[in-house]
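Build the 3D complex.
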Amino acid sequence: MRIGELAQSCCVDADTIRFYEKRGLLPPPQRQSNGYRSFDTQHVERLAFIRHCRALDMSLAEIQRLLDAGSHPDADCGDINALIDNHLDTLRQRIASMQALEQQLQALRSRCGEHRAVEACGILNELTAVAIGSVSDGAGVEIGPGADDGAGER
Amino acid sequence: MRIGELAQSCCVDADTIRFYEKRGLLPPPQRQSNGYRSFDTQHVERLAFIRHCRALDMSLAEIQRLLDAGSHPDADCGDINALIDNHLDTLRQRIASMQALEQQLQALRSRCGEHRAVEACGILNELTAVAIGSVSDGAGVEIGPGADDGAGER
DNA sequence: TGAAACCCTGAAGCCACTCCAGGGTCAACC
DNA sequence: GGTTGACCCTGGAGTGGCTTCAGGGTTTCA
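Done.
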């Protein structure tokens, strides 16, 4: 099966498949005489697994760990459980902070009902006032969800 | 005020301040004779504003739009309202999809209570089975929140 | 005097792709 | 035989919001 066919069967972009191969998530497929990739059913299953995990919002590094675990069937599955638990914890924290954010934004939005001059806009005034207040507090500001997803460990 | 002092007063990394300057969110400060940046209170307020908006998870582009609006005090504030409304919508959608995800992950986690051999691990088996099922369906898999935040417009 | 803390610039790295340029290959059609 | 269009290849750059690094200069304090 060529890359286009695989892409279609898993609803993935061909570029994404090449990307997974380069990252080592998919084993390098055989090549036809013209250099085209030739995938087999193992690749299909593996790609589907990867996409399913991605749909559960796992990172490629986490998926790699699952794939590694899968290739040691006799090992203990504690790592897998820990991975999922960890993932769930992070997710729940993110949901909580996004809900808090929603409250704040909703309160902010209620500051300006209709169109006014920018000068009189409750939203902009509120944003400015809170920002200035936080400086004179010396409190600083916590950056919300998504912005810093604990990615860079270096 | 030098960059370190500004950084501390807003709880921001000095690198982040240089980054905002490069991106045009902060106006270029004056320079001392040795080349060090010299910030004034306007910079402090502006930086605090930016950080506050970032804490509300706005993108730098959105913040730029707010700053632009702020510098035209006589204009109509409809744009600002629309921006916040839009932001709220996106946020609510993300929360909903993350909650759905939480359900799925919780169900998955309940497949394996304690330590077993990987081979017998309910989590891994479930992941594999669902993935293979979705291929034979020809259904493909939807990628969840965060992964594709409508970034690339090009 | 020397060490530590601060500052500078420019570039590269992170994540998970996506898109592009500039080419090759292949089948169908005229 | 030529052309068109769909597919494939590689390598590199771009996305957002920073962070880290390399390799220097400056200031401050003991």
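DSSP finds six helices and two strands in chain B.
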